[in-house]
Design goal:
5 helices; mainly alpha; 3-stranded antiparallel sheet
């Protein structure tokens, strides 16, 4: 999915006063009328009206030139602002931004000035990879907020990217929790197996010790019977002593 980062869509550049082409001088009377009026009156009229017309025309041209200069200054300032704005988007979003598109307005000097613009940017998530999606969302936010004065559209793009980043973080947290649960589930099995082996070893040791005690008791019993049969106990313990022959 692709959207656009744009500068503030401007109205037409404000102009003080009304700009128009310099007015032409009034047309002279018809030649036949001039002939009828006479050469003397024409000369007198021309000498009296020319200075006024010249002053009026000069003043009008001066006003129009000042108005034109103001318009050119405003258009030039707007052109610089728009180009800096869009280039900041493009530089900060290298890899996810497209080309810049400008809208223009013709100035009184005949030149075209940029008064608006936008940069396309890829705002889609990375399928199946929340970590890459998070990194991309952070890059979108940097690109959207790169200009000194972000536009309302820039703020909307940044807000959408923050929402995408939040979803990616939630997915990452869920994945890490699942991995931790799987690891903790394997450890008890290993512990249980080791405990069982230990118990088996203890049981075998107890059996061996019991067998050894039984063998020792049986050996002592045989020895005692042999001593009784040989009369050793009779000599060692005469009648009346407390000793049991029952072995």
């Amino acid at each position: 999915m692709s959207t656009a980062l744009s500068s503030i869509s401007p109205p037409s550049v404000p102009v003080s006063g009304t700009y128009s082409q310099p007015a032409t001088r009034a047309s002279q009377p018809d030649s036949s009328a001039q002939a009828q009026a006479g050469s003397a009156s024409d000369t007198a009229q021309g000498s009296s009206s020319t200075p006024k017309d010249t002053v009026s025309s000069s003043r009008q041209q001066s006003v129009e030139q000042r108005q034109e200069q103001r318009v050119l200054q405003q258009l030039s300032a707007r052109d610089r602002e728009v180009r800096q704005h869009e280039m900041a988007h493009q530089a900060a979003g290298a890899g996810i931004t497209g080309s810049v598109s400008y809208s223009y307005e013709r100035g009184p000097d005949g030149q075209m000035y940029a008064v608006g613009g936008e940069v396309s940017i890829d705002t889609s998530a990375v399928s199946g990879d929340p970590r890459a999606t998070l990194e991309k969302a952070e890059a979108i936010i940097r690109a959207a907020m790169a200009p000194a004065e972000p536009s309302s559209q820039d703020y909307r793009v940044a807000a959408s990217a923050r929402a995408m980043a939040a979803e990616a973080r939630a997915e990452l947290a869920q994945m890490e929790e699942s991995e931790a649960s799987e690891e903790s589930g394997e450890e008890p099995e290993q512990t249980t197996g080791a405990a069982a082996e230990t118990r088996q070893e203890d049981g075998a040791g107890n059996e061996r010790r019991a067998e050894m005690r039984e063998a020792q008791a049986e050996s002592m019993g045989r020895l005692q019977r042999q001593l009784v049969e040989a009369g050793v106990f009779a000599r060692m313990y005469p009648p009346g002593t407390l000793f049991s022959y029952q072995v």
